[in-house]
Amino acid sequence: ISTLTDISRYGLTLVIGGGEVSLLDMTSAYGVFANSGIRNQYTGILKVEDINKKVLEEYFPNSREVLPKNTALIISNILSDEKSRVPTFGSHSILFIPGKDVAVKTGTTNNNKDAWTIGYTPSIVVGVWAGNNDNKPMKKGGSAVAGPIWNKFINEALKVLPNEKFEQPNLETDPKTVKPILRGYWQGNENFFIDKISGKLAGEFTPKETTQEKVITNVHSILYWVNRNDVLGPPPSNPYGNPQFNLWETPIQNWWAQNGNRYKITTWAEKPTEVDNIHTENPLLNISIVEPNTTSIYLPDQRIQLKLLNSGIYPLKKIDIFINNTFIGTTETPSNFSFIPEELDNLMSENELKIISYDIIYNRTETVSIFKIKQ
């Protein structure tokens, strides 16, 4: 972006429009989202040839990753979600392109002086700015003024472009690798994990279903915990060196002094000293497949009743059933589950049955057996 040259003017408000940018730069920046985090410098000319088709000049992109791929995919996932736009823009608004996966964002400056709409697919980015050349206010904002222009153009462009879908992002965040303050915990940034069943520290084999995070209460501005030059890294050694710090920290501390007694306080004294010992490398869950058995030969139209033997300590919570590596179903009552071989695809004379079992404390085990079908 070529227009952000006066660093002294910009603070945290830059993220909500505190600096001037050109339509070309803004549209090019959105191209990073469309391209899964990869930046290509924009150019107006791809190739220059002479009368004999000899190439005189040619543009070759110098691609580089400027944003983690999954971050770009998450942004595209948000901006292409029609349901999330409905409360603000209404159903099937000017931002909606029927049958197409299109991400779009609008923007309006103070007093409706500038109206923006920028939207994209994986193949094209279209940006529209609308405003008066004397900077007088308009009667309406982004979607109402720039939106119809954007909609008409991208609809025409998509007629000759492939109907593409955005790759789905990974929406699971590992709480053990991403600091609490970046996952929405305002209480603090230091933590430990316990197993809810045993009450002890979560260990290597503690399942995520029984893992509970405890965040130590130590309320500060996010700038206390996040180094702006290394967001995912350790906290800054001297947060007070950030000229913005006190502007955010002081009101937060004033609020906490008045309201802290309304919230539960978590301290390091609550951290257990022992590690979860009921979820282990060899879980206390032992499942045997009784039916179908390995010696019988079943008829294709015969209903086969599943029968399991649980010799573990805890009752079963559920099982997942696979036949020849194809998922068949999930049930909390194995004795009620049955199947007819000829109704299943890809059954052979000899077939593999795999049962993934979970007990009530989320111990997990896999059991595999072979059963035969008469051909």
From TrEMBL:
Residues 16-154 form the Penicillin-binding protein transpeptidase domain. It catalyses: [GlcNAc-(1->4)-Mur2Ac(oyl-L-Ala-gamma-D-Glu-L-Lys-D-Ala-D-Ala)](n)-di-trans,octa-cis-undecaprenyl diphosphate + beta-D-GlcNAc-(1->4)-Mur2Ac(oyl-L-Ala-gamma-D-Glu-L-Lys-D-Ala-D-Ala)-di-trans,octa-cis-undecaprenyl diphosphate = [GlcNAc-(1->4)-Mur2Ac(oyl-L-Ala-gamma-D-Glu-L-Lys-D-Ala-D-Ala)](n+1)-di-trans,octa-cis-undecaprenyl diphosphate + di-trans,octa-cis-undecaprenyl diphosphate + H(+). It is found in: Membrane. One of its GO terms (cellular component) is membrane. Its main location: membrane. GO terms for biological process: cell wall organization; peptidoglycan biosynthetic process; regulation of cell shape. It comes from the Bacteria. Its EC number is 2.4.99.28. One of its GO terms (molecular function) is peptidoglycan glycosyltransferase activity. Keywords: Cell membrane, Cell shape, Cell wall biogenesis/degradation, Glycosyltransferase, Membrane, Peptidoglycan synthesis, Transferase. This is peptidoglycan glycosyltransferase. The lineage of its organism: Bacteria, Candidatus Nomuraibacteriota.
